[in-house]
């Protein structure tokens, strides 16, 4: 999984203070081991803080670039002698694991993401995302499903795929009181540099809202299309919107604007992901009928839990079983799977016993709900009651079982 925004903020500060605190930043980067062709494409100035942002942004475009940047920091003489280096080494190890997975695994089939964070089941979504990424003519992904079935959980996997496919997901959580102006402003914050002082032409109370909204939407899409990052706009909890909300108009205008920009700069045009957007909701413009992909989330159950542990324990068998004969080893692995499934289902069903009670906690709950920003529970953080969702309890229990299993190694 990629580093979080606060972690990249730390990296940017280290780059400014230890790597680019120089009147000759190009020479500094050459000495740090960056390739000449990479250095030559950086618009560096005499301002170290700006140079740090430029270098981090350029490095984040690929996993190899991220690894190179963290490796340069870890080897920096000044940082190496400070306590911060332990965080840098941890980030580097995490990115090296990502790089290894990128080169050796089918990232669309990954089930254990960052640490013990698990993405359970969703076989159809995995292949839908694979097709969506590969087909540049598809611009809108819609994810439907019953409440609490894991639609927002989709965002966890999108972040994982983003790390390996080179795009940047920009998520806005919707709620009944959300307005189109608020959504545009939040999207604009992702695609524009706040230090530049440029703001989108959002409507005010004195404006005619529809023409102004259309102009603001096209401004956001144009900014995203011209950005160095490739953006996916993710609007989550669409079904929480009030039926009369002007965000419905915004969604149609945003989808159409992206569709219209795609032929101009297809490789850089943003894409739109709508989570909780059912087929019975407001129809998107007719022009988009061949540009949409659909997925339907469903609640995972015993079969999906068993399939996960069948795969997981056989990919990472305990070393203690290595000396057993093949038949005995298989019987022992099957026993481990049976225990894990029984404990996880008991924990998810609300029993006080079970793997979910071991190291589950809020981290597992957040991951199961697709929240990687530390928020847990209802309200503006996703619209599901805290602790009541079966998918959240199931996710926490599976992650707790993974931690326990790893401790046996």
**Residue share in helices?**
40-55%
Query: Biggest sheet, strands in spatial order?
Result: 2-3-4-1-5
Largest sheet: 5 strands, parallel
Count of beta strands: 5
**CATH H level, superfamily name of the largest domain:** P-loop containing nucleotide triphosphate hydrolases
H-E order: HHHHHHHHEHEHHEHEEHHHH
- The coarse silhouette is flat
Second CATH tier, the architecture of the largest domain:
3-Layer(aba) Sandwich
Overall pLDDT metric: 83
Specify the structural class. alpha/beta
Kindly, what is the distance between the CA atoms of the first and last residues, rounded to a whole number of angstroms?
23 Å
Computed over alpha carbons, the radius of gyration is 23 Å
């Amino acid at each position: 999984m990629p580093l979080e925004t606060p972690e990249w903020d730390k990296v940017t500060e280290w780059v400014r203070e230890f790597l680019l605190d120089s009147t000759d930043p190009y020479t500094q980067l050459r000495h740090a081991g960056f390739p000449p062709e990479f250095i030559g494409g950086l618009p560096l100035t005499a301002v170290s803080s700006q140079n740090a942002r430029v270098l981090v942004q350029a490095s984040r475009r690929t996993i190899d670039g991220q690894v190179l940047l963290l490796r340069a920091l870890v080897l920096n003489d000044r940082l190496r002698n400070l306590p911060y280096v332990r965080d840098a080494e941890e980030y580097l190890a995490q990115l090296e694991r990502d790089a290894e997975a990128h080169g050796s695994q089918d990232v669309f089939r990954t089930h254990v993401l960052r640490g013990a964070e698990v993405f359970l089941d969703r076989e159809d979504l995995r292949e839908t995302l694979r097709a969506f990424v590969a087909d540049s003519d598809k611009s809108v992904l819609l994810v439907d499903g019953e409440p609490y079935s894991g639609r927002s959980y989709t965002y966890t996997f999108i972040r994982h795929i983003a790390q390996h496919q080179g795009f940047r997901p920009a998520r806005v959580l919707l709620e009944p009181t959300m307005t189109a102006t608020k959504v545009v402003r939040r999207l604009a914050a992702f695609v524009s540099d706040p230090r530049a002082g440029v703001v989108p032409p959002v409507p005010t109370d004195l404006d005619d809202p529809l023409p102004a909204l259309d102009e603001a939407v096209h401004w956001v899409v144009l900014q995203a299309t011209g950005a160095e990052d490739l953006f996916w706009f993710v609007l989550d909890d669409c079904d929480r919107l009030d039926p009369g909300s002007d965000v419905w108009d915004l969604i149609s205008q945003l989808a159409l604007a992206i569709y219209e920009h795609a032929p101009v700069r297809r490789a850089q045009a943003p894409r739109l992901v709508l989570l909780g957007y059912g087929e019975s909701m407001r129809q998107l413009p007719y022009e988009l009928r061949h540009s949409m992909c659909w997925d339907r989330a469903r609640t995972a159950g015993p079969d999906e839990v068993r399939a996960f542990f069948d795969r997981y324990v056989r990919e990472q068998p305990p070393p203690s079983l290595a000396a057993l004969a093949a038949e005995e080893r298989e019987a022992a692995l099957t026993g481990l799977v049976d225990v894990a499934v029984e404990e996880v289902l008991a924990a998810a069903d609300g029993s006080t016993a079970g793997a979910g009670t071991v190291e589950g906690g809020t981290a597992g709950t957040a991951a199961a709900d697709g929240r990687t920003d530390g928020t847990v529970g209802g309200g503006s953080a996703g619209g599901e009651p805290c602790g009541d969702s079966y998918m959240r309890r199931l996710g926490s229990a599976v992650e707790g079982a993974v931690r326990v299993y790893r401790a046996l190694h």
